[in-house]
């Protein structure tokens, strides 16, 4: 791919929810010692409370002065402690004084973080409250993953420390979170910051913690670097010491160096001298393939091989490109291991290589290590040919082979390949996260310091895709702390930190990071070019124009694919728009036209999104609101944008454009560029009141809202009938609703381990429904539901919905398990499955409309159903009560009575709110058409 490894374009803010069904055992900030305590409220008044103790059971720090006196931390070593009673009188007194933070602290000490969060919600906002809330959040997500808990707590603590950099409890708790994220060097820095505050007891403990974390981590780094240097010596000196001990500890880099040493051996004796190293590595990996490699090479004619081996070693040591003539000599020589080694170096340097010739030669060595490399290069060629599905299948199969052969170093390499593929090429960040996490675990298990750095950056990129900004920044900074003197790493990390800061609307910080990246002298890459294009809207930046020109020129020389070429033009157009508007618009229009020719190319979709957003905001800025409306329809592939009762809303970071045409068709527009924070969980405030009033005379309003607005609730008031127009325009008229089956999925037997109750069915309609097809209980598996939807003109799904960024990039519907254990219906499965009967779809599941709003496409279950062929989808963006089934049923009945879906939704919402004004969730039920 065109972009550098582990670099992607910045996504927009994501609206994040947590699954409530995952396994127990979240982080809890080392609160395991109190996690088993049971709160007991009693009428007695034990004094004092909490009872005095010589040690503290809670490693985290709370901000109440009485609880923050330093005592040694004594974690629970086994058994359950006596429950700490909560004194009724003391709690009542705190409630009378509205000491919500004190009550929350009491509950935290007994392990009841959910109650603590409830009381902290009553407290006025302050850094102290937020610091305690971070501790509670970590415990409160005990039903979610440990990663989710860390992400949430880290975000809160970083926000506190931006406001109060010297906040001792927040700084301490930050160190704990970073340590539990396994970012020891950052955790050590945070403990150092606490130590500098000079607090009695806490400073000493913080200093000890920092020293231990730093020493353990840097010792691992030194061991790897020493082993790496020892293995490299074999290339420079055929009589160098054999690194037997190092190879036993780090067989990954040991094996890489072994192959080079065998290739560089100038004589039979020099080759045979490597047998002890081969045997050490064979014991580490199992088998005798490396011993056989040495004996095979030693049997070669060194009068012919010797000079080739010397030249090979010289070129590798000097990091000089292999001349084509020398490569041809190696190919003809029959010394296949030398030929494979030389081509491998060329591939690593990203110089043109005959990938097929390399793969054939690598397979010919009969070594599974090289077979895996050959498969990776075949997959790379398939990606270049646009056959990503073949590449994906090939590398997945190679990974299975690798794991069977226990070639952990190569397995980590394949995990990195899959991470990049799923993130950059296929835009599937949930799967990218899975492979990055497992690759990181594998690298740590092996002690492979360099691979750990790689996967830290992979995890950072995936977190950035999901807009988990604090976690992304932490991964990047930890990776730089491990290689602080490497200019390439300095440049890479700072340009990515610039993107992270930009996403969080910290423009000055983004500029500083970009300046540091440019000063490093390393290439800016696609990601750096994107940041410069964004920052151009905030005024000139010294050196930016030259840096962008060099970057784009370099990227264009790398034979980019069509979608990548369009993206490069879009970036250049954005930058030029602020200097030469006419030239910028021409480039952006060209990029848009190019991108539309390649709808299945993820970079083309990125180009389309960036070019459209820039052109729409430019049109809004210049008052060309009708053009902005047309461009929004074009981005959403809506043919024939309505001339009346239509609304377009587009957000480009700090800029917002809204265009409306009411019943008269008059154009009303609004442009602002004052946004200072990411979009929240709803779209309230994006449409000015005057524009809302202009739309009230419409029977229904079609909303054209490109990502990231698409799918946000509360865009318009509850008394206006409106719907999101999504996806491709319908071709022809959909079949009548009564021409197909009415599929109802309910009473689902979700896996018992999830602990999910059955949901009640919507109220059945009066009379018989001959069209109804029921899928219930254990029969309601993802495969059966997908199959049954193929003949349905109406689909109702009554089950639990969750949103988990670790499992999917949109909401999941929880169904009965297949034989292989799979139980979730994902947006990706729905999108790949056709719905030929164009059904009306009712998703009566919690948060079924929740979406990961990537900048180039809204990815959600409703959008997936529409792409699969549904005519309309009704779904909620929030958790809904069990009684919501009746609401969906009544909307369906209104549609059957002849109402337009958006009118049916509006009328039922109004009726429901009149009867139950407190049911605010009905505002978050959306219609997608």
From TrEMBL:
Pfam families: CHAT. Transmembrane segments: none annotated. Residues 773-915 form the CHAT domain. This is CHAT domain-containing protein. It comes from Corallococcus aberystwythensis.
């Amino acid at each position: 791919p065109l972009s550098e490894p582990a670099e992607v374009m910045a996504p927009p803010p994501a609206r994040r929810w947590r699954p409530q069904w995952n396994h127990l055992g979240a982080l809890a900030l080392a609160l395991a010692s109190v996690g088993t305590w049971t709160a007991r409220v009693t009428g007695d008044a034990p004094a004092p409370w909490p009872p005095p103790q010589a040690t503290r059971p809670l490693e985290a720090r709370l901000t109440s002065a009485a609880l923050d006196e330093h005592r040694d931390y004594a974690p629970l070593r086994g058994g359950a402690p006596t429950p700490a009673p909560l004194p009724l009188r003391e709690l009542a007194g705190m409630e009378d004084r509205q000491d919500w933070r004190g009550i929350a602290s009491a509950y935290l000490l007994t392990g009841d973080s959910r109650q603590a969060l409830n009381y902290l919600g009553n407290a006025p906002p302050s850094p102290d409250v937020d610091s305690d809330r971070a501790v509670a959040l970590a415990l409160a997500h005990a039903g979610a993953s440990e990663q989710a808990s860390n992400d949430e707590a880290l975000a809160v603590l970083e926000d506190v420390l931006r406001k109060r950099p010297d906040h001792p409890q927040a700084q301490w708790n930050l160190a704990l979170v970073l340590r539990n994220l396994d970012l020891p060097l950052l955790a050590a820095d945070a403990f150092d910051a606490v130590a500098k505050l000079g607090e009695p007891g806490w400073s000493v403990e913080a200093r000890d913690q920092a020293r231990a974390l730093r020493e353990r981590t840097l010792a691992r780094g030194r061991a790897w670097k020493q082993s790496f240097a020892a293995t490299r010596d074999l290339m420079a000196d055929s009589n160098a010491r054999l690194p037997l001990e190092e190879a036993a500890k780090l067989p990954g880099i040991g094996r890489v160096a072994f192959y080079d040493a065998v290739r560089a051996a100038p004589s039979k004796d020099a080759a045979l001298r490597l047998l002890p190293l081969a045997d050490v590595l064979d014991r580490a990996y199992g088998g005798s393939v490396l011993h056989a490699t040495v004996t095979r090479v030693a049997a070669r004619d060194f009068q012919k091989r010797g000079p080739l081996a010397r030249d090979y070693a010289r070129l590798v040591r000097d990091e000089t490109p292999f001349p084509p003539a020398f490569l041809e000599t190696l190919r003809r020589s029959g010394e296949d291991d030398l030929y494979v080694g030389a081509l491998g170096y060329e591939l690593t340097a990203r110089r043109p290589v005959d990938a097929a010739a390399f793969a054939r030669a690598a397979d010919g060595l009969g070594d599974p290590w090289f077979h895996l490399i050959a498969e990776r290069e075949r997959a790379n060629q398939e990606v270049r040919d646009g056959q990503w599905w073949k590449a994906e299948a090939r590398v997945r199969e190679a990974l299975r082979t690798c794991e069977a052969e226990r070639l952990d170093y190569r397995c980590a390499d394949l995990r990195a390949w899959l991470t990049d593929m799923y993130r950059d090429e296929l835009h599937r960040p949930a799967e990218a996260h899975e492979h990055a996490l497992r690759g990181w675990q594998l690298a740590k298990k092996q002690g492979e310091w360099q691979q750990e750095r790689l996967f830290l950056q992979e995890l950072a990129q995936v977190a950035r895709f999901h807009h988990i900004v604090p976690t992304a920044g932490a991964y990047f900074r930890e990776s730089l702390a491990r290689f602080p003197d490497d200019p390439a790493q300095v440049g890479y990390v700072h340009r990515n930190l610039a993107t992270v800061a930009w996403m969080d609307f910290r423009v000055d910080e983004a500029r500083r990071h970009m300046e540091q990246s440019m000063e490093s002298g390393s290439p800016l890459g696609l990601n750096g070019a994107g940041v410069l294009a964004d920052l151009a809207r905030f005024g000139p930046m010294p050196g930016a124009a030259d840096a962008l020109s060099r970057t784009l020129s370099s990227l264009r020389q790398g034979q980019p694919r069509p979608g990548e070429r369009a993206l490069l033009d879009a970036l250049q157009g954005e930058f030029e728009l602020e200097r030469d508007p006419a030239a910028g618009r021409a480039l952006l229009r060209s990029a848009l036209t190019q991108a539309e020719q390649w709808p299945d190319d993820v970079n083309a979709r990125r180009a389309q999104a960036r070019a459209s957003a820039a052109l729409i905001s430019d049109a809004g800025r210049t008052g060309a609101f009708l053009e902005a409306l047309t461009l929004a329809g074009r981005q959403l592939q809506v043919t024939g944008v309505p001339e009346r009762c239509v609304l377009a809303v587009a957000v480009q970071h700090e800029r917002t454009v809204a265009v409306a045409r009411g019943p008269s068709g008059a154009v009303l527009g609004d442009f602002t560029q004052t946004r200072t924070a990411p979009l929240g969980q709803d779209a309230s405030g994006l449409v000015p009141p005057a524009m809302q009033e202009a739309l009230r005379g419409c029977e229904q309003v079609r909303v054209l809202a490109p990502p990231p607005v698409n799918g946000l609730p509360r865009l318009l008031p509850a008394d206006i009938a409106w719907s999101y127009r999504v996806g491709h325009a319908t071709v022809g008229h959909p079949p009548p609703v009564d021409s197909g089956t009415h599929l109802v999925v309910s009473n689902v037997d979700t896996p018992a381990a999830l602990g999910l109750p059955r949901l009640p069915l919507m109220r059945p309609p009066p009379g018989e429904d001959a069209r109804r097809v029921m899928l219930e209980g254990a029969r309601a598996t993802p495969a059966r539901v997908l199959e049954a939807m193929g003949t349905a003109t109406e689909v109702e799904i009554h089950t639990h919905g969750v949103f988990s960024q670790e499992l999917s990039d949109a909401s999941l519907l929880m169904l009965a398990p297949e034989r292989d254990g799979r139980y979730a219906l994902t947006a990706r499965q729905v999108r790949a499955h056709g719905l030929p009967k164009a059904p009306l779809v009712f998703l009566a599941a919690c948060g079924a409309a929740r979406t990961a709003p990537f900048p180039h496409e809204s990815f959600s279950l409703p959008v997936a159903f529409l792409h699969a062929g549904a005519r309309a989808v009704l779904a909620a963006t929030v958790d809904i009560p069990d009684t919501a089934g009746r609401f969906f049923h009544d909307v369906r009945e209104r549609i059957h009575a002849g109402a337009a879906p958006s009118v049916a939704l509006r009328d039922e919402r109004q009726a429901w709110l009149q009867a139950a004004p407190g049911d605010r969730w009905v505002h978050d039920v959306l219609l997608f058409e």
